[in-house]
Design brief:
Strand 2 and strand 3 form a beta hairpin. The chain folds into two domains: 42 residues, no CATH class; 82 residues, Golgi alpha-mannosidase II (Immunoglobulin-like, Sandwich), CATH 2.60.40. The chain has 147 residues and is mainly β.
């Protein structure tokens, strides 16, 4: 949902359906939505879709990878438009939780809002320190958290 281009969600992927792509006809297992984990995943996708459609930086082709740490499995980039809209994505692609991890060259300064869990943090001196759970991503914008 944060990459350049039009995202593709494969039939039920937004709530945890796991039927592999094939040319055969497959029915979506709607009963998965009876489970809390699947409902939570669908709500996560809804949050990302609402954010993507309402933020102009997500509609531009501008992307800048500003922090790459192959040893830790961390990749961070920003999307931005020509009018000043900026989003920042921080990904932990590893199987390890990274506590007190410092992201350098962070392009936002001051109060920041993390979109998926509506939390706040403060970036200063082009850096931010945060806990990155294994195989997780965070989406930041400038400003205060709503909650």
């Amino acid at each position: 949902m944060t990459a350049v281009g039009v995202p593709m969600i494969w039939m039920g992927e937004e709530f945890g359906e796991h039927v592999p792509m094939s040319e055969q006809s497959n029915k979506i297992d709607w009963t998965l939505l009876e489970n809390d984990a699947n409902k939570d995943l669908r709500e996560y996708y809804r949050t990302l879709i609402r954010f993507r459609t309402s933020n102009p930086a997500c509609r531009s082709n501008n992307v800048d990878f500003f922090h790459e740490d192959p040893d830790a499995g961390v990749l961070c980039f920003q999307r931005f438009d020509d009018e000043g809209s900026v989003i920042v994505v921080a990904l932990n692609l590893s199987d390890d939780t990274l506590e007190d991890y410092t992201v350098t060259n962070f392009p936002l300064d001051g109060p920041c809002r993390e979109i998926t869990n509506d939390s706040a943090l403060v970036a200063s001196e082009s850096a931010v320190t945060l806990d990155l759970p294994r195989r997780a991503g965070f989406l930041f914008t400038k400003g205060e958290a709503d909650g």
